Amino acid sequence: MEVSVYERERQERIQRNREWIAKLGVNELATGLRPEAVAGKARAAPAGLRKRKTISEANGVDEEVVRARRMSLRVRGRRPEGDVDEASASGEGKRGTTVVAEPDRGPVLGDQHWEQIALRDYGVWNEDEEGREEDDPERQRRRLVERFATCLSAPTTPSYTNAADADVAQRLPSWSLHEERGFAKLVPDRVYSAVMLPRNDQWVVAVGDKWGRVGLLASSATAGAAMGILSLTVHRRAVSGLAVLGGDGGGRRLLTTSYDGSARVLDLEKQMASTVFVDQEERLLKSVAVAAAPTAATAARNSNSAEVNAEPNVWWSTLIDRSRGGCLVRHDLRTPMHTADEFFVSDYKLYSVDACCLHTAQAHSSAERLAVATARDGVLVYDTRRLSTSARRRNAPQQPLCALPHERAVTAARWSPSGTRLLTTCYDDRLRIWHGDWEAASKARTEHTFVHNNNTGRWVTAFDARWNPASADDTLFACGSMHNSPYHGVDVFHTRHAPHAVWHRLGGDAMTAIAAVLAWHPGGQALAGATASGRLYLWCPWDDQTA
């Protein structure tokens, strides 16, 4: 093909320009002026997760060959409703494909040992075990459970001592995030709930994720102490609530609630998971509340008051039904799993419930005040002594002591350590502290209001602002933060030092995501935050990082 005159002239100009650039040495000059690449600081990897080799890496096969293809219900031999037809009853679907068994969706009814439900890829391994594949999965799970139990029972130096609220506020700015002992991946998916156990020898944290796994972390503030990590498949759907059951003196039992309509108890001594409640209609259990005993500071301040009683075997939860609105559920662990008291509350969605003990004159009476966060009715406050089991229908809802109006949905409502104030988290980008006479709605008022971005969106768990349990004067609380400039962190508020803004911000170099789910240590000396990727961050006064 003959080249045109214009194209020939263009090629000649390009060649002349290249010769001039080479003669002037522009390329060498530009290379000398280019700044050298500076290697950035490598981010710390979380402890707990061991990545396994994929099938393609283990067998040397191209990943595209072994990657499973998505198959429709028709190809798998199933009807549109999801039922297996006669053609697939023998295990073969259409076109000769094997029918994939659907996972169970109902609640787990029987008791299970931890060795049966432990995840093999989550734990703490020795250096010689990092790259080794275990042939026997049961033996590997047994080793992980035994290693965590050994770490949990190992005697260590106390991580904290009881201190007043003023000491906590003074020391909190010095808390830090330890990249080796305070940063771990506990569960595979998004965290929905978290709790810290009341132990003073080491930090023990439990988190629940979107698909029923519960991750446990045991870490000590003392340098050189062993760290334990264990992940268990406890439920078949999201673990919506975690609470420490009292009455055993050391927080050895954990209560879990799930979207599969069941509640289970994890015994840290017996290493067992037992089912204690199952909803017959398998409705969603949204949260859990167990009235805790008063803290030392609160008990000292109320020494002249009547006795405060907490029932360790009774727990509360919010139950969601798409067609019948939201209900409150009360269950006693000493009764059968299918028995519970149900109280209809609202036609709309319920988010959370929190309980606090009341001062009663009777020595053996159990009285609690409940705060229920709803989607459209604001916050409803109830007295458990006035709840009637006969009002279980939509046309006969429970009458609250008072209702606290909010402009948008309230994702959480938490009682203060003294039980006199209520902290609410709302989608109108406000954190409110309510105070007053809870017997009359007209006397309950907003004491403090903080502007805070609470619109987490679809992929981040809704914020739940939490009081510091050691805050005897109800001044210190924390909430997750959507701000990432200059870094991700957790917002800490103090009503006395900063009554209208963020008082302090906890963060760290290892923090790369939003810690939406928070849990304080019952002594107020540590704060744990979990993210949508199953990672956990722990802020506390570490021994090797304090001055």
The poorly predicted ranges are 87-102, 296-309, 361-365
CATH topology of the largest domain: Methylamine Dehydrogenase, Chain H
What oligomeric state do the depicted chains represent? single chain
Query: Which CATH C-level class of the largest domain is it?
Result: Mainly Beta
Termini Cα gap: 80 Å
Which percent bin holds the helix content?
10-25%
Name the overall outline. globular
The biggest beta sheet is recorded as: 5 strands, antiparallel
Please give the order of strands in the largest beta sheet: 1-11-10-9-8
Pfam families: WD40 (PF00400)
Region (Disordered): 74-107
GO molecular function: DNA binding
WD repeats: 403-434
Primary descriptors:
single chain, alpha+beta, Methylamine Dehydrogenase, Chain H, 2 domains, five-stranded antiparallel beta sheet, 8 helices, 30 strands, globular, WD40/YVTN_repeat-like_dom_sf
